[in-house]
Amino acid sequence: MYRLNLPQYDIKTIEKSGKISIFDILRNKYVSLTPEEWVRQHFIHYIIEHKKYPQALLANEIELKIGNKKLRCDSVLYSKNLHPRMIIEYKSPNIVLTQKVFNQISIYNMMLKVDYLIVSNGIQHYCCKMDYNNQKYLFLSDIPDYDNL
Questions:
Q1: Which of these, 28, 39, 64, 118, could form a disulfide with 122 (CB 3.0-4.6 Å)?
Q2: Distance (Å, rounded) from C-alpha 144 to C-alpha 68?
Q3: Whole-angstrom distance between the N-terminal and C-terminal Cα of the chain?
Q4: pTM of the prediction?
């Protein structure tokens, strides 16, 4: 796969009928290994192992409904009261993180109103903290540790 700007971890994969799947620790199952999934699994392990995010408060593929349209957040971090706290959007490493990607995560946030948004293609990572009182956001220089959220 791709070399990412994220720490390595003990990757678990299997092959079935010529297709490779990777183990998703949040969904507790093997899922199809796509370039975006490669980024997701590395990023999830990074925030759990290095940034100390509680695994029990993270979820992948969270469905949202806007009218008849169904959308999916790649990952969501919840508070201890199970309110959405952070949305994480992943792209394949060969996808440039353009305004279109930020527009996508902003649509999700219209529904969830989280404190933090993260976008990553595994090479570049952007994190911003929302300031709803002043109707703006602040890009952070690094992904915050869980204790600093």
A1: 39
A2: 35
A3: 32
A4: 0.94
Please compute the mean of the pLDDT values over residues 34-44 and round it to a whole number.
98
DSSP type of residue 38? H
Structure tokens at 145: 């540790």
**Which residues are CB-neighbours of 40 under 8 A, at least 6 positions away?**
24, 60, 74, 75, 90
Is residue 97 domain-resident?
A: yes
Q: What is the CATH number of the domain that holds 45?
A: 3.90.1570.30
62-96: pLDDT as tens digits:
998 878 889 899 999 999 999 999 999 999 999 99
Which H/E stretch holds residue 114?
Answer: none
- The confidence score (pLDDT) of residue 20 equals 97
Within its chain, how far is the Cα of 63 from the centroid? 14
